[in-house]
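Thread: "does anyone have the structure for this chain?"

Original post by V.I.:
We have the sequence but no experimental structure in hand. Need at least a predicted one for the grant figures.
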Amino acid sequence: MKTQSIMALAFASTIAITSPAIAQDRSDWPSNFTVGTASQGGTYFAYGAGWANFVAENLGVSGGAEITGGPMQNMALVHTGDLQFGLTTMGPARESMDGNSPLAPGLEMDNVCAIFPMYQTPFSVTALSSSGITSISEIPDGATIGFGPAGSTSDTYFPKMMETLGVNFERRNGSWSDLGGQLQDGLIDVVAFAAGIPIPAVSQLEVQTDVNIISMTDEEAKIITEAFPVSEFIIPASTYQSLENDSRVVSMWNFAIANCDVPESMVYEITKLTMENNDKMMSIHKAARTSVPENYNKNNVLPWHPGAARWFNENGYEIPDSQIK
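Reply from O.Q.:
Generated one for you, tokens below.
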């Protein structure tokens, strides 16, 4: 599982010496850390890289983001300890824990712990306005659809969703940036995005060309929510300049994760920093508006890291011992 690293290092020189995190015993903390994200052009990379820098700058430990194949690969890399931290979606997390990851069939990835809620991943479809495609039912027979990096949340679920809705397509994988470029160049017909909003690749497309951001009908949303571990979601019209009205789609929750062996005190300080500074997280990415402690109960898959659970329990968000690793 080779990945491409983009390390954005930050050092303790930016830290006020009065920080309570600096005063505690850090003898068992790693000297640096890495966060597994996904491909460039997607929300995971923007969110994860910004969060890694935020943690590094405030806790005085060098760290950064790593480009990966997304949630499924992050589960594997964090489970093995190749990465200390990562980002994942609840569907791929469940499959990985149950031993159903295509990256390591039969391996139950049970050394991955939740640390905090991130945001919901909407599943949305984008096509060029010039294509004339304004609904899922209008996607032509045999259309080439980009589903994101192989093994990503989109690639794992969106093809099955399209098949369930009766769409006949040719499958294409790649980074969100690459697929956006292929869509603009007419090399593919549709991109089926699964990423937090606003998706950088969609925002970039809007600047360069006219696009249709396609909603699901009431019936389509009903069919998909009954068949997959998702819920209905509304993309506000204000999210993209191409949207004139709110857009109904479906979504799946994302959580930040840690290898369960990362020191409790380190994960406690990271959780505290993140959950108590939502304004700073919002400055990293607008999707972080839901990265708030009240959404801790959206995790019904992963065990909680003891350090994260300690912060939540101290602040009135009850996590029972049975849910803590």
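V.I.: this helps a lot. Confidence is low (pLDDT under 50) at residues 1-22.
O.Q.: and Residues 43-59 form the longest helix (17 residues).
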